[in-house]
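Dear H.,

Thanks for agreeing to be a second pair of eyes. The structure we're designing against is below in token form, covering all 328 positions.
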């Protein structure tokens, strides 16, 4: 029998969805008519206890000409790159946090195109190079908070989402922006399981999308995003919970009505449209008042969760007059 010693830097059990919770969620999905296919479809070979990679073994393609943001930097130590690269929520590659790093390693991200449609003057099919100039890449160090009460500090590399959106010249009828992830079961084995309706969908109000904090990322830690972290295009919204940061984007639509995001469809009593980090409103199954930084030792105390993940001074005005417990 193989006995594995737990490291002090390993995620705590409190950071990992308990088996009973996962099974209850699966039962809910089945009851809602969202059936789960056999785990044997490309996922059964994954050993949940197996380490994905030893420290220092994960590498990426360096990004040239990255300019560090003068405004968006934190004094906190960034989370270890290997932790960020091997502990992921990306259901397109499986429901366990260890699956994406294993199953996405051969995922091809070049060439890549994005369809832009809806209420805009410049719809069409845009290539990666049309959207992201290597001479405009910026590094921003943001807090990143998962709804499951773990957090990270990541030096993301990318471009302003607002500046990208302006290229498409949205019209006055564009009240919201809808985003979709790639849907391709041959490349994303997790999509052979009907855990959620595919493709994955997210949305923002137009003023949220144009906010200076909103970021379209193509890399982190000075290298290109790895597939398990949402390559080649991933949105980062540091004042919102992580599930809003949609990965591997292939469609951007400018729409009049509020789009229904994926988790609203699956579990509407738990996940809403806004997903603003709010320690005063508990998730139905756990508290959001405190968080564990990914990589903290087993004896490290959880830290208090900050309103809007610490970005309240910059984004609170977007929600003036709103009941943030109702519009969660």
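And this is the sequence the design step returned. I haven't edited it by hand at all.
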């Amino acid at each position: 029998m193989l006995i594995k010693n737990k490291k002090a830097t390993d995620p705590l059990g409190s950071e990992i969805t308990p088996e009973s919770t996962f099974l209850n969620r699966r039962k809910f999905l089945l009851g809602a008519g969202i059936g789960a296919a056999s785990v044997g479809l490309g996922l059964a070979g994954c050993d949940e206890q197996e380490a994905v990679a030893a420290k220092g073994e994960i590498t990426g393609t360096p990004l040239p000409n990255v300019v560090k943001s003068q405004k968006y930097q934190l004094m906190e130590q960034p989370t270890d790159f290997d932790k960020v690269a091997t502990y992921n929520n990306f259901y397109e590659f499986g429901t366990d946090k260890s699956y994406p790093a294993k199953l996405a390693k051969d995922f091809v991200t070049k060439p890549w195109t994005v369809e832009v449609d809806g209420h805009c003057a410049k719809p069409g099919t845009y290539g990666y190079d049309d959207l992201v100039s290597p001479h405009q890449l910026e590094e921003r160090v943001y807090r990143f908070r998962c709804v499951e009460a773990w957090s990270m500090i990541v030096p993301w590399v990318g471009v302003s989402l607002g500046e990208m959106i302006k290229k498409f010249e949205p019209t006055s009828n564009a009240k919201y922006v809808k985003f979709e992830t790639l849907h391709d079961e041959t490349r994303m084995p997790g999509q052979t399981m009907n855990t959620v309706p595919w493709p994955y969908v997210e949305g923002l109000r137009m003023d949220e999308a144009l906010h200076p904090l909103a970021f379209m990322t193509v890399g982190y830690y000075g290298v290109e995003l790895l597939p398990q972290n949402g390559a080649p295009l991933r949105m980062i919204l540091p004042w919102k919970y992580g599930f809003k940061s949609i990965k591997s984007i292939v469609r951007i639509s400018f729409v009049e009505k509020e789009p229904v995001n994926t988790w609203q469809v699956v579990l509407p009593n738990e996940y809403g449209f806004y997903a603003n980090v709010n320690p005063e409103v508990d998730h139905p199954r756990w508290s959001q008042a405190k968080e564990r930084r990914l990589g903290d030792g087993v004896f490290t105390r959880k830290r208090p969760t900050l309103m809007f993940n610490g970005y309240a001074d910059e984004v609170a005005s977007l929600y003036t007059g709103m009941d943030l417990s109702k519009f969660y």
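Two observations from my side: The domain at 13-319 is CATH 3.90.420.10 (Sulfite Oxidase; Chain A, domain 2). The longest strand covers residues 150-160.

Warmly,
E.
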